[in-house]
Amino acid sequence: MFAEQTFTPYIVLLSLICIIFVLFYVRRLVLKPDLQEELLIGNGQTIGKREEQDDYFSTVISEGHTLAVVADGISGLANGRMASTLAVTTFVREFMKLERYIKLQDFFSRAAKQSNEAILKNLSGASGGTTLACAIISYNQLHWGAVGDSIIALYRNGHLVNVNEKHTLSSLLEEQYLAGQITKQQAMENPMRKRLINYLGFEGFKSMEIGEPISLKKGDKIILCTDGVYNSLTELELCEILEKPLSPNDAAEEIINRIDAKRLKHQDNATIIILEKLW
Predict the structure, then answer these.
(1) pLDDT above 70 covers what percent of the chain?
(2) Are 94 and 114 in contact (CB under 8 A)?
(3) pTM score over 0.90
(4) What CATH number is given to the structural domain containing 133?
(5) Which H/E stretch holds residue 36?
(6) Which domain range does residue 25 map to?
């Protein structure tokens, strides 16, 4: 009886230590994904020579996921600013509903459909629309979806590679050329080759392009930008800035400054988001 009473406090203490150890281990498992995918985020924007800013963007961190989304209200159409703002805010709203452990593929389709419906409702038959590029970084992987000609690109080891396709007539013309239906000259000289064939706010919109997840490595930089960026700077110029030891915010600012310095006569709105994976 005396022996049992003597060892009881030690048993209780040992049990408490075991519980604390288990809780600490579980906490490490829960927090580990966030530590592994820690990111630096930067952005930049210029109105260019336009009368108003039709680009809209946002970055959000929630439940272990990081969202970056950029939209370009279509130039030449009324309500471009409304469309880009509504599309981005819809994607952010749906993103905030996501839980930590969830399949992300359905998110893009759902958010795109809701954005398209909301834009069409607000247009009430008028002209308008927007491109959109969206990236989600989750557990060391890049998940993405895009519609229109805003791009998502991955900068790795000195190379900048586009992740998504541009939904313009030029893409369709290239397919026709490769299939032998038209000549290379016909494809290159078509005056409508930059015309969008899919965007949000389009009556014929069916779906956005959604790609397979891309595994990320230390030092990778994910770039989302509107056509005002890549139509103003060459890939070589972008890589020259991205390879510098700059923070994403400083790199984005230098890219925008480089665009403004060119003083192009018809400079479009330009917006860029840069996300850098630390480890």
Answers:
(1) 81
(2) yes
(3) no
(4) 3.60.40.10
(5) helix 2-36
(6) 1-36
